[in-house]
Amino acid sequence: MTEIPSDLTPVLDQVDRALDDSLSRLFGLLRIPSVSTRPEHAGDCRAAAQWLCQELEGIGFSARLCETPGHPVVVAHDRTPPQGPHVLFYGHYDVQPVDPLNLWHSDPFEPTMVTRDDGARQIVARGASDDKGQVMTFIEALRAIRATHGTMPVRISLVIEGEEESGGPNLVPFLTAHRDELAADIGLICDTGMLGATPAITTALRGMVGEEVTLKCATRDLHSGIYGNAARNPIELLCTILSSVRDRESGRVTLPGFYDGVREPAPELRQRWREIAPDDATFLGEVGLSHPAGETGYTAIEQTWCRPSFEINGICGGYTGEGFKTVLPAMASAKVSFRLVAGQDPVRVRESFCSHVRAALPADCTVEFTPHGGSGACVVADDATGLRPALAALGAEWGMPAVTIGCGGSIPVAADMRNILGMSALLIGFAHDDDRAHSPDEKYDLVSFHKGIRSWVRILHAFAAA
Amino acid sequence: MTEIPSDLTPVLDQVDRALDDSLSRLFGLLRIPSVSTRPEHAGDCRAAAQWLCQELEGIGFSARLCETPGHPVVVAHDRTPPQGPHVLFYGHYDVQPVDPLNLWHSDPFEPTMVTRDDGARQIVARGASDDKGQVMTFIEALRAIRATHGTMPVRISLVIEGEEESGGPNLVPFLTAHRDELAADIGLICDTGMLGATPAITTALRGMVGEEVTLKCATRDLHSGIYGNAARNPIELLCTILSSVRDRESGRVTLPGFYDGVREPAPELRQRWREIAPDDATFLGEVGLSHPAGETGYTAIEQTWCRPSFEINGICGGYTGEGFKTVLPAMASAKVSFRLVAGQDPVRVRESFCSHVRAALPADCTVEFTPHGGSGACVVADDATGLRPALAALGAEWGMPAVTIGCGGSIPVAADMRNILGMSALLIGFAHDDDRAHSPDEKYDLVSFHKGIRSWVRILHAFAAA
Q: Is B226's CB within 8 Å of A329's CB?
């Protein structure tokens, strides 16, 4: 345990006193529909970046908007404290699209405070959890520290990007170009969750390869009565090819070389996860399921924390409106993704998938590929800088020991920070699996927001004292 | 050969003289967007029915709109001629949806006359060929006869419905309820095509079973990083189930009992079709393909004229917009259809498909089915009433012998006329395979329209003389 600095209590009191103001600032950010994947929201993405710049300047940081070929990146610094490690905080201001809009119970961009039957309060809006709510826990922590002490406990830089949800290609060149400016001792990434009610630092993250595949057969849509059977149906072909990517019996991905370099999780790690993580019934029960799909021989948690996966994220072809249309379409397309673990190369996985599709094409059919992001997995060592003080600080705030966990999601910037900026990144966040990130009615618990702010105050002071 | 009545020539001359007026009336009907499958076009469907009523009354028929639970049916009669057989003409005034609208080169509901490089003129609009253009060949023939002779050569009734493209359930009860009123000697259905440049009567029609299948897994859309692999993906499940409906090697449908009652086409029929019908390269080449898909051992024409088929007409699930979204959706759906030949029971085929889907469902997954139409195949005997006079009349108009052919499409009313009204129906039409029925830029050749009108004049007089 690190020593708790004596100047911590007044900051935590300030956080508690200012909570309503912190919330109203978060609501302001949530009202900006910064959907990065939709071109019509480019102006909203810029507005969210500008909003963050102003907030950071307002609490004494030097902040600026950095242009990229896509959405701008917010960079801010307070490098005045002479002592302690220099931390680089990462978050993103962009959000997922909101469709299907009809399944939302309130306007996704008009944040609402909902009180559950058990009295728990939740902030409902697109981005409430992923990632605006989480980003604001850090900024509000900085504000409380500034208001109380006037100075930061350690040197702090922030990078808040706007293309995390769109797999935008611009962050890597940006980090590379600003390598010297952004170099620090500890990376902090706030885009992950807790383990139920237990505070957690994510130390194993999967990578991801996203790919869009479009199959084309005839030169135009055909009448299925006149041409059906005899003319190749691209939907059926797509179904056949996509269903061949997974072995029905073992649930394993069939692509050649897909598991090359993938190691089995260590028995002691599996044992620890079985102790701390929810069992299959609990994990799947939250979303109405009871039986794990996917690879046999692994629990649901193992499958999502340390095994690679294949998912079809979207499929479209032919007539999908109301009623029926006896069309034999000219094309069909799907968006698929692979989650990668340590040892897998995103470039090779993408090539293996594309080769598999090409090899399965019969005569008269063509394929077009559109890549959507690619990143390797990232694992943080047990002795990474700042990991122990951060775990201790989290434990103190939440009243129980913090744990290290894996995460099925992909946060490419963790690998980027290591590969480009040469530092390990601690993934600390306060989200929950039931936050409905990427889904209708996305929410963030008020407790996550409040204690998240307090957690950062403790963590930053712990770094200063370490 | 039947004797050509001496009063035929002045009627044909009248058709030629009035062609521009006939065209402008057709354009008027084409401008009504009577898309039966879309509820917002219900008023347009009624408007098209009313338009037809007025036209038929204008040429001396007693015409009326008959209400159904769906779109109204137009019924008209001129039963004054005492002599000859009584014919019942069938057509439909509804049209297919127009999407994808961006692939049309002109407004689908603003008919345009296009002149091809070779000088051929084509009427471009939704419904130009299927079926408004064809229906108007018959009505304009009646108009020319009335203008020339004042009386019809035979008793004529018309039924023009508005739910052919939507698989509406209302025609069968309607025909049943009006059985006595609609009883006639010869059915005429104008919703088929020629064989290239050769006039043809379709004597083998496939039936159809349409079904919509929706699979549901989790209770909400999930983040594919957090739940992927472990939670069942309904898109992947749908792909697997749909691709299992056809055997990859033989191309045959795998549903138990699917081929029960299906007879091989007679060797002499196959031989005749090989002589008159386009070969695979020609048939498929028109739409940019060269290799037949589907069942091995059959030509493309055999597959579409006399073999049952399975098609996926539409599929939809997950995120299908621009960019990428790492969603694991809660549901996915597809519209599929089976074309049936003589001997297959639509009820059994539907049950077999639904059972196949249900049997393939893993735990935690549910399925919902929405039926879309079902009808058996229909074959017209060589000695059916009116077949020989009609073939002779067509041959005289087009200057070459008319042939009998099969058709891959499904026109349930042919079986309905037989089963409910007790008469064989002759399927006579002037469409072409390249008319882009159900596709963008649907067209009808001006020659089809003009000589189609003349053909009906000859056929009706041939019936009178037979």
A: no
State pLDDT tens for residues B284-307.
999 999 999 999 999 999 999 889
Confirm if A33 and A42 have CB atoms less than 8 A apart: no
Residues in contact with B172: Cβ distance below 8 Å, sequence separation at least 6, in sequence order: B416, B420
Instruction: Specify the pLDDT at position A177.
Output: 97
Task: Name the CATH superfamily, with its identifier, for domain B8-205+376-465.
Answer: Zn peptidases (3.40.630.10)
Query: Chain-centre distance of CA A133, in angstroms?
Result: 13
ipTM > 0.90 (yes/no): no
Per DSSP, the residues of B50-95 read HHHHHHHHHTT-EEEEE--SSS-EEEEEE----SS-EEEEEEE--B
User: Which has the minimum average pLDDT: B27-31, B132-136, B436-440?
Assistant: B436-440
Residue A438's closest chain B neighbor by CA?
A: B223
Q: How far apart are CA A194 and CA A397, in angstroms?
A: 13
Placement of tokens 């600080």 in the chain: A393
Question: Helix H segments across B232-288?
Answer: 234-243, 267-276, 280-285
Distance from CA of B158 to the nearest CA of A (A): 25
Show which of residues 268-297 on chain A sit within 8 Å of chain B, judged by CB atoms: 280, 283-284, 287-295
State whether residue B311 sits within 8 Å of chain A by CB: yes
CATH number corresponding to B207-263+296-373: 3.30.70.360
Q: Looking at the predicted structure, is the pLDDT value of residue B6 above 70?
A: no
B377 contact residues in A (CB cutoff 8 A): none
Residues A134-168 as b/e (b if ≥16 CB within 10 A, e otherwise) read bbbbbbbbbbbbbebeeebbbbbbbbbbbbbbbbb
From the CA of B311, how many Å to the nearest CA of chain A? Answer: 6
Q: A207-263+279-375 is classed in which CATH architecture?
A: 2-Layer Sandwich (3.30)
Cα B165 from Cα B70, distance rounded (Å):
13
Distances (CA, A) of A274 to A250, A280, A301: 22, 10, 9
pLDDT (tens digit per residue) in A414-448:
989 998 999 999 999 999 988 998 889 999 999 99
Secondary structure of B237-252 as H, E, C letters: HHHHHHHCCECCCCCC
Helices in A247-363 by DSSP H: which ranges? 267-276, 280-285, 300-306, 346-359
pLDDT of residue A73: 98
Positions of chain A with pLDDT lower than 70, given as ranges: 1-6
pLDDT at B2: 38
What pLDDT is recorded for position A4?
47
Q: Are the beta carbons of B293 and A335 separated by less than 8 Å? A: no
Domain boundaries, chain B: 8-205+376-465, 207-263+296-373
Each residue of B237-250: b (16+ CB within 10 Å) or e? bbbbbbbbbbeeee
CB contact under 8 A, B304 and A225: yes
Q: At what angle do helices A132-149 and A19-30 cross, to 10 degrees?
A: 140
- Chain B residues with CB inside 8 Å of A218's CB? 287-289
Structure-block tokens of residue A36: 């990065």
Return d(Cα A170, Cα A187) in angstroms, integer. 19
Which residue in A314, A176, A170 sits closest to A242, CA to CA? A314
Domain A8-205+377-465 - what CATH class? alpha beta
